[in-house]
Amino acid sequence: MAELRAKTSPQGSDPARGSLIGKRIPKMDAPDKASGRTRYIHDINLPGQLHAKILRSSERHAKIVSIDTRAAKALPGVHAVITAADVPWQRPIGVAKDHLPLKTDRVRSLRDEIAAVAADSVEIAEEALGLIRVDYAPLPVLTDPVAALAPDAPRIHPAPQGADGGPSLKPGLPVAYTGKPDNVAMVMEYAQGDVAAGEAGSALVVEDVFRLHYVTHCCLGVSGVIAEFDPSGNLLLYSNTQVPFLHKREFAELLDIDPGRVRIIQPPIGGGFGSKLDIYPFEPIAIFLAKITGRPVKLVFTREEEFLASPTRQPVLLKLRSGCTKDGVLTFREVETLHDNGAYTSWGATTPFVMMQTVSSLYRVPHCRYRTRAVYTNNPYAGSFRGYGNLQATFAVEAHMDRLAEALGIDPLEFRLKNAQDPGEVTPQGMHFKTCGLKDCLRTAAERGDFLRKHAANRARWSDGDPVKRGVGMASMLHVGGGAKIYPSDGCGTILKIDDFAHVTLITGASEIGQGSETVLAQLVCEELGLPLSAVTVVNNDTDITPWDVGVHASRTTFIAGNSAIGAARKAKDKILALASSKCGDAAEALDLAEGCVVKKATGERVFELAKLIRSLHFSDKAELVMTTHYYEPPSVHQDKQFKGDVSAAYAWATQVCEVEVDTRTGIVRLVKVTGAHDVGRVLNRLGIEGQIEGGIVMGQGYALTENLMVEDGWVRNPNFRDYKLVTAPEIPEIDVSFIETMDGEGPQGAKGVGEAPAICIAAAVANAIYNATGVRLTSLPFTPERVYRALHGAAQPLEWNVPQ
Amino acid sequence: MTIERYCAPRTLDEALEILRAGPVSPFAGGTDLMPQSQAGRVRLAPVLMNLRRIEGMGGIAENDGVVRIGALTTMTQLMDSAVVRERLNILWQACDHFASDQLRNAGTLGGNICNASPAGDTLVPLLVLDARVELAQKPNGRIETRKLPLAEFLLGPGRTTRAPQELLSAIEIPLPAEGFYGAFFKLGTRPALDISAISIGLGALHDDGCLRSVRIAFGAVAPTAIRAARAEAELEGRLLDQDVIDAAVQAADTEIHPISDLRASGWYRREMVCNMLRRMLEDARSH
Amino acid sequence: MPARIDIAFRLNGVGKRASVAPETSALEMLREVIGLTGTKYGCGEGECGACTILVDGVTINACLMFAADCDGRDVMTIEGVNATPRGEALRRAFVEHGAVQCGFCTPGIMVQAWHLLESNPHADQATIQRGIEGNLCRCTGYKKIIEAVAAAEAVERGQTPVEQSREVQRG
Ligand SMILES: Cc1cc2nc3c(=O)[nH]c(=O)nc-3n(C[C@H](O)[C@H](O)[C@H](O)COP(=O)(O)OP(=O)(O)OC[C@H]3O[C@@H](n4cnc5c(N)ncnc54)[C@H](O)[C@@H]3O)c2cc1C
Ligand code: FES
Ligand code: FES
């Protein structure tokens, strides 16, 4: 890494005096965090609290014959040992409601929860786990997703049965879980145009099979939860969920209580990245234990558990067929994928929503067909992970952009520009790109990364005998940037109060997961109210206080919560200016707020000190406070049954050029430089957005080169940082980021969401760069030294598509 | 696991006395013992003995052409030592590729040797440097020591010829002649924090295009770190041309027995030993 | 009856006594027995650096150290680092350079950076990168952390960093 300073495009910051937009604004929570004062869930201990541990399956697929908890229960210091038999009222959780927190008749993967202990200390709880005896009757193990489709494959989810052969879930309870007739968890199909006609009109057709691997979030703070009931049966949950309001309802359903009686407090979170979007069994289990013991129960994972029992990015086998005319115009694209769902269904299974958008709409393609099947196996199950399927789809699509360009003898940049979307376009899938900076992204990244020159020069060195090769590759991406309407509402509420000292409390539904949303929201409010950042306190972590929000996902918080906060601030401003107008006689439209005062718009002359004005309202005979609320619902729509519709209020774009060095003697690929150009709508907090992008790039680097959760026959072979390799400081590339500001009309101050974007292109661009360096195309991730070495020396197994129809 | 007693003796004498009395788990930095015991891979004995307080078991001293390194010397202390940097540079290189600053500050040379991992990073340079280990015990009221070449000390993964009542007290390295060339290579994508998939040590004296006193050692390609006698013989005293390099690489190929594990396949390890030994010899030629 | 060991050591400059089980790690002792939670558990295996503390002036992974081994030694945690001028300079640099996201890795990196600047006052970029190689961060991509440490180093040399976020508060 030769140079550190991010080069950012000069445009962006508002020339208007005093604006905070586009500035480098430190995160409000940073001083506490940097001094170790922030209390994460791990640091919270409640009086009387018990510690819980979970006993997980030692079999990948088996019937549970018996569980003997007597010795564990007898251990001094143990308050409760529970199995499914103790919570007959438990309900299935997860996206497809196919997952019981405590397993009844069978285990389906190694992580499966069989029993749980609450004890005076973690050590005692662990000792108690060791005393629980489980008898299994092993079942045939199914860990190959292709084999899962065979007609005689073992069934992962037959109708659940109890030990007596009858239904294991007590009749009469509202349980939707009835088992599955085959191993297909989910099918998604999408089509536009006429693929056969597209193919007939193609001068060139390419087809490849790609394999995408397991990776996992590796939040530095491990998962944890504290559950507590008050004597009236109200549940208080300290949880790191990214979707508190959705979970409030789900937990209430689980307990069969009124959702109003569930309160979720979110302590600061040690990393999210999508890992905390679903309910996982440990949460209900802690709740069961708290209910049974009447004590607060804290359950925190070890790092090993975090690797074994938290969700992964979904592994995918993908076949892509693409074509274009001899002039380089894309004609059609056909995709078939097989997703390894693992034993249960979480958000991972729904990633095709995002994947098909990239397939259909990143570039203009008239004819498109897309089909995904997610199948059950005895492997770990997948959740949502930053980028949500888009890393996988982009990897395949961008490989074909390069292959087609090469076959036609067009340079990769020109080929992409020819097919890139423009602003105003409505794609056949119904996405409306009101703003679209893709072409600017392509040109900027190519120019700043010196792409064309290097691309040609590297190729010329293929056979020059030097064992160390250089390569450049590019890839682009499209991702939702204005929320994503996957629930009935994609909205967010804000309550804003300004106190007698002109101090603002911004109460927002939007959770902070380390990405810096609270700072951006405060900044947007300050912008409206003409106040310094120090005049704002953000409250965002308690469902008893904060208004509704759908959750932190889909890069939506800046956009949705930002618009919501602006809405509330504008209402407050209107109220203040109306009051000021009534006092000074100037029209409200002629007044403004700046630097803690009401000022005349035209001259900037100070009319009132804001705090004084507010006090005069408060202590008047009308006695009013400045408190406003706003709910923002983006103008997006649900997709229809054909997966068509304008699902987001804005779309984010990016191009990244990656430069690599490949040592052909070892297969080691070094990521030397990443040049990114991101259409972010507008830069709100330059420091924050750079941080998001740099972090995403390095996460993408890990996905491409080093990270690999090795799942072999259902066993996780490397549940530790020793062999699951996160990128470390000496490995990072030089990073050069440009921001393309397209000023989105709907975005808060013109901004779009970007949280997921930076991780998406890296693997695709690195694959193209390795090809540019060596002439060898890799279609399986990750590019670990041995895999690359094998491919370079012709010792790689080619991928085949042998998936039954 | 119940530890009945913890002790931190101040003298070697005291420590050896405790060892003689019964099963003891000694530790120095604890960077191997702590995670191994917590993961249940090692059972701790009823007595846990901290070696770090023992006086006189650290330090680096040079005497009569022999460098004596106390077993408690940490990786950081090795790297800070002028003798190590200047005269035993291959050992310095290995320390530089060792884990992280935090671990280099805690992990000891004695611990790395006694842990006897096939991938232990200091073992390869120590083999190249013809290091000897010194073991001490107190069988009948008097401290007795024995010294043996490191290669004879290492038996297999986690296994050495150390008797339970013995401590590794020091490592002795004969100072290589002036002009000794040493190179260490560790395969990985990171500079350090990584367990070696393979490592190679090469030491020799340059003599008119020939290599003399050639010593080659490999890590992580056999149950212990090993010397490659046949490859050494192919090189000894010969003009370092392409044929000789080829012959040495071929010989090395016959001396290693790499296994496949999650870090690398045996096939890849073998390829890497050959490719990288070749590269190191080519570098040595142009040095 | 499992053994307990009474130990005495200096913790952030103040004498401290504690009673610990032999297998307890220094990390558990600090967090659970003493109640200093700035030192974090990220892996318990020496791989992540979230638990970095200073013992007799050098950094170690508290998760790999037996608590009993603290006896007689001088221990400094993030809480102690905070109170030093260098700790303050680092904190300011971390905040202003955007080196903190979720913040979970930050205390460990602060302590490691403190030690890096202590033992290597003129650390350049490559040295800083190597210096924090034992600290994992999942959020930031390290770039801003490296910049922050470099900025703190510049402050120590009496050179104020070129770029500062003075724009934060207006007026
Ligand atoms: C995250 C991590 C990364 C690592 N990276 C590397 C690496 O890159 N390269 C590498 O080689 N190793 C690595 N290690 C392993 C370990 O740090 C080293 O082996 C270290 O040198 C061990 O020294 P120690 O003093 O901490 O050993 P301890 O854990 O104290 O002891 C190790 C073993 O040796 C015994 N022992 C120690 N000293 C003596 C003595 N004087 N006499 C008799 N027996 C003794 C102990 O009983 C124990 O069985 C890593 C470990 C971790 C946790
Ligand atoms: S917790 Fe100690 S290094 Fe990770
Ligand atoms: S800021 Fe989250 S791990 Fe570093």
Average of pLDDT of chain B = 96
The CATH homologous superfamily of the domain at 316-484 and 639-792 in chain A is termed Aldehyde oxidase/xanthine dehydrogenase, molybdopterin binding domain
Q: Unreliable segments of chain A (pLDDT under 50, ≥5 consecutive)?
A: 1-17, 170-176
Put simply, the count of helices of chain A is 20
Question: How much is the radius of gyration of chain B in Å?
Answer: 19 Å
The side-by-side strand order for the widest beta sheet of chain A comes to 3-5-1-12-9-10-11
Largest sheet of chain B: 5 strands, antiparallel
What's the arrangement of secondary structure elements?
The complex is a heterotrimer of chains A (805), B (287) and C (171).
Chain A: H1 30-34, E1 50-56, E2 62-68, H2 70-74, E3 78-83, E4 106-107, E5 113-119, H3 122-131, E6 133-138, H4 145-148, E7 184-192, H5 195-200, E8 204-212, E9 224-229, E10 235-239, H6 244-255, E11 262-265, H7 282-293, E12 297-300, H8 303-309, E13 316-324, E14 330-342, H9 352-361, E15 367-376, H10 390-408, H11 412-419, H12 438-448, H13 451-459, E16 468-480, E17 492-498, E18 504-508, H14 517-529, E19 536-539, H15 557-584, E20 591-594, E21 597-600, E22 606-609, H16 610-618, E23 626-632, E24 651-663, E25 668-679, H17 686-706, E26 711-712, E27 715-716, E28 734-740, H18 757-760, H19 762-774, H20 785-792
Parallel strand pairs in A: 1-12, 10-11, 14-15, 18-19, 25-28
Antiparallel strand pairs in A: 1-5, 2-4, 2-6, 3-5, 7-15, 8-13, 9-10, 9-12, 13-14, 16-24, 17-18, 17-23, 20-21, 21-22, 24-25, 26-27
Chain B: E1 5-7, H1 12-21, E2 24-27, H2 33-38, E3 47-50, E4 60-63, E5 66-70, H3 75-80, H4 82-87, H5 89-96, H6 101-106, H7 109-115, H8 123-128, E6 132-137, E7 144-149, H9 150-153, E8 154-156, E9 159-160, E10 167-174, E11 180-186, E12 199-207, E13 210-219, E14 226-227, H10 229-235, H11 242-255, H12 266-286
Parallel strand pairs in B: 1-3, 2-3
Antiparallel strand pairs in B: 4-5, 5-10, 6-7, 6-10, 8-9, 11-12, 12-13, 13-14
Helix pairs in contact in B: 10-11, 11-12
Chain C: E1 5-11, E2 14-20, H1 26-34, E3 52-55, E4 58-61, E5 74-76, H2 78-82, H3 85-96, H4 106-119, H5 125-131, H6 143-156
Parallel strand pairs in C: 1-5
Antiparallel strand pairs in C: 1-2, 3-4, 3-5
The structure holds flavin-adenine dinucleotide and FE2/S2 (inorganic) cluster (2 copies).
Flavin-adenine dinucleotide (FAD) sits between chains B (25-33, 35, 51, 71, 98-99, 103, 106-108, 110-112, 114-115, 120-121, 162, 167-168) and C (45-47, 64).
